[in-house]
Design a protein that fits this description.
Blueprint lengths: L2 H23 L10 H14 L8 H7 L15 H22 L2 H24 L3 H7 L2 H16 L6 H31 L6 H29 L3
Helix pairs in contact: 1-2, 1-4, 2-4, 2-7, 4-5, 4-6, 5-9, 7-8, 8-9
Membrane topology: Multi-pass membrane protein
Main location: membrane
Subcellular location: Membrane
């Protein structure tokens, strides 16, 4: 039994409660009332991505703890293990929320994505290893802030506004820096350290990168086509 599982369970419950109460905190506009669950789901995801002092400040951890650049397997800063466990709880909650409220053919990509993340992060939580590698992966959440804001603006029917246009530009910039570049760096690290990582763990990491990279390239194309190429 790992104490990290308690953090995962607590995180799942906390995000579930937040999801249930968000409609009162942020009432959906008329254009989003036909998809109330989606409105709550996006705001819950935004709360996870923008969690102060954790996801959004992940880059600071690498400046304060330069040893992470050399050892992403056994070393991690204080609180990093709990941070990864909190994320596992969120992805489990989001998985259940989509499974209960959306048809499978509409959500299979995200369900597949969440399954990969839950497995990879779950290994880090249970083994207390590869937490540093999971921290690098959480840099992606910086871009997720603007991805979720984009969805909120779309649901609020605010596409033809300066706010949406500005968010689109920031979203594209952070997508390239914090999502594509991060995935490329993680793939490179796995390749360079293939002799230092156990075969099973290396296989899981390589498979995860092989799945995530094409998915994010496709998503980048969809964003470019929707926000810039029209």
């Amino acid at each position: 039994f790992s104490p990290g599982l308690l953090v995962v369970a607590g995180s799942f419950a906390a995000f579930r409660l937040l999801n249930r109460g968000l409609e009162r905190l942020v009432p959906p506009p008329p254009s989003a009332r036909h998809k109330r669950w989606k409105w709550r789901n996006i705001w819950t995801s935004l709360a996870h991505s923008a969690l102060p002092g954790t996801h959004s400040l992940s880059p600071c951890r690498f400046y304060l703890h330069p040893e992470l650049s050399h050892d992403l397997v056994s070393k991690h800063p204080p609180g990093a293990h709990s941070l990864v466990a909190v994320s596992v709880g969120y992805f489990l909650e989001d998985f259940v929320d989509m499974l209960c409220n959306q048809k499978l053919h509409q959500s299979w990509e995200l369900l597949f994505h969440h399954s990969v993340v839950i497995i990879c992060f779950g290994i880090a939580v249970l083994l207390h290893q590869y937490v540093g590698f999971a921290l690098v992966a959480l840099l992606v959440e910086i871009n997720s802030i603007f991805l979720h804001l984009r969805q909120i603006l779309l649901m609020a029917n605010l596409v033809h506004t300066t706010c949406y246009r500005l968010n689109s530009l920031i979203n594209l910039g952070t997508y390239v820096v914090f999502r594509m570049a991060t995935l490329a760096w993680m793939s490179r690290w796995l390749f360079l350290n293939r002799h230092n990582v156990p075969p099973a763990a290396h296989a899981v990491g390589t498979l995860g990168m092989a799945i995530m990279t094409p998915m994010n390239i496709v998503l980048l194309y969809r964003l470019l086509r929707s926000d810039f190429l029209k």
